[in-house]
């Protein structure tokens, strides 16, 4: 019996349009002040109803609900925060603490158009970066105020400070960028440092009232000497990273074996050509590639990722510590791993000539090098070769060598995928990565810029492809009720920042078109091409990156603007990123059946790992600064050619061209008055000649290289 066809009435369409209209209003209201066009609305609402959205946007503009700011882009023009005043005192919100040097804070809350001001007395011991619950007390339009009612998650519980003993009391003085406080040692403290030792202290009791004392226990004594080892450990500890694995993790690791007990349920790739390509000094190999012709003579390329989820049980001590760290941290002279070395460098690492458990995305390509189909699942591999990037590059350049045919084919397909990705609007920025050549004692002998080879881009394209297909699989598995997932998202650039940047680029003779998202990416890629040919334009590329939003982890998918992907995630590095481990678990549970993890748990974990990622980046930058100072300590008084890379109302920041070291040129060292212009891209010299602007070349003299401050100070030569 045939099913009766249901004719949708006009009222049904009207109802759908009304629901869509409300969703659009809510979207713009939640992003007040942020211009969005039709493509952004479609992406965020996960709909392809372009004609309906176009009509609704025009209708909302005519009603005054939305305001057109540029062709095709609107901002919310409705009731603004007044709409949040209804019963606002009974509502609570959650957000991140942004602590100011004055002791007060602003709470950045999702769903509120303005940051909430909280006085120091109402912070309830919340520290910078903590995730808190707040209650609004004054929902004013100008400056909403509130109080912290609960601390949901601490951004960190350990600090680095100086141990002091005074009148039979011992405490640690902690000094940070925006605050200074004392932590008194509690009765459980076992380690007894010497007076003035630098120590790591773990907080055991937080202040609930201003009259309370913060209590803690010393977990590590770093010492008084200013050594590289102490400084690197201090950098890590200051960002909240544990220097050692807890006892519970060490005990769990004792019973972990290399036996793979579920081989029968895995797809077997052990007899297929498979290899890894990594940095020459790498020890943890996350990914491998396989390549073969299948029974239909189609090309099958497998992206095989270490199956960390096989070894790390959810909610185990190991899992909790991995989540707490969030990622591995790569400093100039060492790595602080997310997982113990037995896992990261041995059991999970895809070392050659060993059977390894993997989670794979396998692509089948037709003769035109187009993806015909793909498969996702658990596998077992046996890598036959461990390549360094430089080895692969040499083989590709020479046109001969071990596995040349396979590498050549992989490279050709990767270049085709890359070309299509850029045509679709992806942005291709090549940022310079400075590395140090160290002697046997860890002292820097030289600095060099890591070269980006075709071999790097080969691996990059297959990793991007696997990440994209995994995210797409989950997103499209059930469109009616979306599966909570960990997406890697990247928002569109800020229009105001883009406008300022475009104006500055024009002053340097570069004309960029930012009228549409596609033209933005095309202009940025044009700039990248010009910067490769003219090194003086690299500062423009650096400024362009600053206009971009920062990528983050979120279950709320808005797409990845920089890659021009509708769906994207991180699947390919579970040894060093907890996000990828989360993705592996969700993916495995949804391959054949359907399982929904709690959305609020995923949201909180995404927020945490995004925060940990930023902390790791800060630690890496601090490490680089320290080694730059160490490298130039013996060159006080020397002159260097430099280029202006940044500025504020106190200083100009320069990069020395010969060694890529960053230095500070204080404005008060410049003869005559200097004033930062409104666009923060140039400085007017009141008694001087022409303004100093970003990208200008200067000759500077090094006058200070203090390791304590991790800062190089220069003056005009």
Short characterization:
This protein is of the alpha+beta class and 717 residues long.
Q: Given the helix and strand composition, which structural class is it?
A: alpha+beta
Q: Please tally the helical runs, counting DSSP H or I stretches of 4 or more residues.
A: 16
Uncertain regions: pLDDT < 50 for 5+ in a row? 1-13, 79-90
Considering DSSP H and I runs of 4 or more, what fraction of the residues is helical? 25-40%
Q: Please state roughly what percent of the residues sit in beta strands, choosing from under 5%, 5-15%, 15-25%, 25-35%, 35-45% or over 45%.
A: 25-35%
Beginning-to-end CA distance, first to last residue = 91 Å
Please give the largest β-sheet: 7 strands, mixed
Anisotropy-based shape: globular
Widest β-sheet, arrangement of strands = 14-21-20-17-16-15-22
Total strand count, please? 34
pLDDT averaged over residues: 87
- Rg: 28 Å
Could you please describe the fold and organization of this structure?
It is a single chain. The chain is of the alpha+beta class. A hairpin with a 6-residue loop joins strand 31 and strand 32. The longest helix has 34 residues, at 599-632.
Question: Keywords, please?
Answer:
single chain, 717 residues, alpha+beta, 7-stranded mixed β-sheet, 5-stranded antiparallel β-sheet, 28% strand
Secondary structure elements and pairings:
Elements: H1 10-30, E1 36-37, H2 38-45, H3 50-63, E2 66-70, E3 73-76, E4 92-99, E5 105-109, E6 116-118, E7 131-138, E8 145-153, E9 158-166, E10 169-176, E11 179-185, E12 198-205, E13 215-223, H4 228-238, H5 247-253, E14 267-268, E15 274-278, E16 287-293, E17 299-306, H6 308-311, H7 317-325, E18 329-330, E19 335-336, H8 341-347, E20 355-365, E21 371-382, E22 385-388, H9 389-398, H10 404-423, E23 434-438, E24 444-449, H11 454-477, E25 487-489, H12 495-507, H13 517-533, H14 538-547, E26 552-554, H15 578-589, H16 599-632, E27 639-647, E28 651-656, E29 662-666, E30 674-676, E31 682-685, E32 692-693, E33 697-706, E34 711-716
Helix pairs in contact: 1-3, 2-3, 4-16, 10-11, 12-14, 13-14
């Amino acid at each position: 019996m045939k099913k009766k066809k249901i004719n949708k009435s006009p009222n049904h369409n009207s109802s759908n349009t009304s629901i869509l209209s409300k969703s659009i209003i809510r979207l713009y209201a939640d992003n007040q002040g942020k211009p969005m066009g039709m493509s952004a609305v479609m992406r965020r609402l996960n709909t392809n109803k372009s004609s309906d959205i176009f009509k609704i946007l025009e209708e909302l503009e005519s009603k005054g609900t939305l305001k057109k700011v540029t062709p095709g882009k609107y901002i919310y023009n409705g009731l603004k925060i007044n709409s949040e005043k209804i019963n606002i005192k009974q509502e609570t919100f959650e957000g991140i603490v942004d602590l100011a040097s004055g002791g007060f804070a602003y709470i950045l809350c999702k769903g509120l158009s303005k940051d909430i001001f909280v006085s120091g007395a109402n912070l309830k011991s919340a520290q910078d970066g903590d995730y808190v619950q707040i209650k609004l007390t004054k929902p004013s339009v100008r400056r909403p105020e509130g109080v912290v009612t609960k601390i949901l998650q601490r951004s960190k519980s350990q600090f680095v400070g100086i141990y002091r003993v005074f009148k039979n009391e011992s405490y640690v003085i902690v000094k940070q960028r925006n605050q200074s406080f004392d932590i008194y040692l509690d009765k459980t403290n076992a380690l007894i440092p010497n007076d003035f030792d630098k120590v790591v202290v773990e907080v055991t009791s937080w202040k609930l009232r201003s009259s309370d004392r913060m209590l803690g226990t010393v977990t590590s004594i770093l010492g008084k000497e200013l050594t590289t080892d102490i400084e690197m450990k201090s950098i890590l500890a200051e960002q909240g990273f544990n220097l050692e694995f807890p006892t519970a993790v060490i005990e769990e690791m004792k019973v972990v074996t290399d036996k793979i007990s579920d081989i029968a349920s895995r797809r077997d790739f052990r007899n297929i050509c498979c290899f890894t390509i990594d940095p020459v000094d790498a020890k943890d190999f996350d990914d491998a590639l396989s390549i073969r012709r299948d029974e239909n003579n189609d090309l099958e390329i497998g992206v095989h990722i270490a199956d960390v989820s096989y070894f790390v049980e959810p909610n185990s001590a190991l899992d909790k510590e991995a989540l707490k760290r969030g990622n591995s941290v790569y400093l100039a002279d060492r790595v602080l791993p997310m997982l113990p070395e037995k896992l990261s460098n041995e059991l999970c690492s895809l070392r050659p000539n060993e059977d390894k458990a993997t989670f794979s995305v396998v692509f089948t390509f037709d003769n035109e090098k187009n993806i015909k189909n793909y498969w996702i699942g658990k596998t077992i591999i046996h890598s036959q070769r461990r390549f360094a990037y430089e080895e692969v590059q040499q083989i590709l350049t020479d046109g001969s060598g071990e596995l040349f045919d396979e590498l050549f084919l992989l490279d050709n397909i990767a270049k085709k995928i890359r070309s299509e990705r850029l045509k679709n609007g992806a942005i291709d920025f090549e940022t310079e990565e400075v590395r140090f050549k160290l002697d046997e004692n860890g002292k820097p002998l030289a600095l060099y810029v890591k070269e980006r080879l075709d071999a790097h881009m080969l691996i990059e394209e297959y990793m991007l492809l696997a990440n994209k297909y995994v995210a797409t699989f989950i997103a499209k598995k059930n469109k009616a009720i979306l599966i909570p997932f960990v997406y890697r998202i990247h928002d569109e650039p800020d229009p105001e920042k883009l406008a300022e940047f475009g104006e500055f680029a024009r002053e340097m003779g570069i004309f960029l078109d930012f009228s549409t998202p596609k033209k933005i990416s095309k202009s940025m890629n044009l700039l990248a091409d010009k910067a490769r040919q003219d090194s003086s334009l690299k500062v423009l590329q650096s400024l362009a990156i600053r206009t971009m939003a920062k990528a983050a982890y979120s279950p709320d998918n808005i797409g990845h603007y920089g890659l021009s992907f509708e769906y994207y995630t991180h699947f390919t590095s579970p040894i060093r990123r907890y996000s990828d481990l989360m993705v592996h678990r969700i993916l495995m549970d949804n391959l054949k059946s359907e399982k929904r993890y709690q959305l609020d748990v995923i949201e909180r974990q995404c927020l945490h790992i995004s925060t940990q990622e930023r902390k790791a980046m800060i630690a890496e930058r601090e490490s680089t600064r320290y080694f730059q100072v160490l490298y130039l300590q013996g060159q006080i008084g020397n002159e260097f050619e430099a280029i202006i890379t940044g500025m504020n109302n106190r200083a100009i920041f320069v990069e020395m061209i010969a060694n890529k070291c960053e230095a500070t040129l204080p404005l008060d060292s410049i003869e005559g008055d200097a004033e930062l212009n409104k666009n923060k891209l140039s400085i007017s010299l009141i008694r001087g000649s022409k303004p100093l602007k970003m990208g200008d070349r200067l000759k500077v003299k090094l006058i200070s290289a203090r390791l304590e401050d991790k800062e190089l100070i220069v003056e005009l030569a």
